Amino acid sequence: MIVNNKEHQWKPNATVAAIIERDGRFLMIEEETPSGLRLNQPAGHLERGETLLQAVAREALEESGWLFTPRGLTGIYLADTQDGDITYMRFAFHGDAVPPASPPRLDEGIVAVHWLAYEDIAAQTARLRSPVVLQCLADYRNGIAYPLQLIRDLR
């Protein structure tokens, strides 16, 4: 007999990430983590009441200072933390970005914003926040793109 125990129901953490390419380089943030400095796309958690598109634009602004407009969905990725305690469901979007008009005030823990070639990112896999970071970029480079109309927010 299967019992649905909502108290112990597994729930993934919904996150968003912005893939921003300019002149063959990708906007990457360098952030402090419990494991040391790591590279990531501007990314973070979906907050209550936000749409996925609002969340990714907000995270890009907070972490990089750039104004991001999503143009497509690159993919949806499920990945566990190394200890397996948490599963993340990452919605990776690609799009356009406008530079900040003045020096941005970045989220706590962000130490730098970099523009890096894919090859430079791939050569630093040990510094990536997770393997999903490189997979998102590889999928984007391979032309994987879904229209934003795929996403329906019915709240």
TrEMBL record:
Quaternary context: Monomer.
SUPFAM superfamilies: Nudix
Co-factor requirement: Mg(2+)
Keyword Magnesium carried by entry: yes
Keywords associated with the record: Hydrolase, Magnesium
EC number, UniProt record: 3.6.1.-
Similarity section: Belongs to the Nudix hydrolase family. NudJ subfamily.
Root EC class: hydrolase
Organism classification: Bacteria, Pseudomonadati, Pseudomonadota, Betaproteobacteria, Neisseriales
Native source species: Chromobacterium vaccinii
Annotated InterPro entries: NUDIX_hydrolase-like_dom_sf (IPR015797), NUDIX_hydrolase_CS (IPR020084), NUDIX_hydrolase_dom (IPR000086), NudJ (IPR033713)
Name of the protein in its database record: Phosphatase NudJ
Pfam families xref list: NUDIX
Domain Nudix hydrolase: 9-138
GO terms, molecular function: nucleoside diphosphate phosphatase activity; ribonucleoside triphosphate phosphatase activity; thiamine diphosphate phosphatase activity
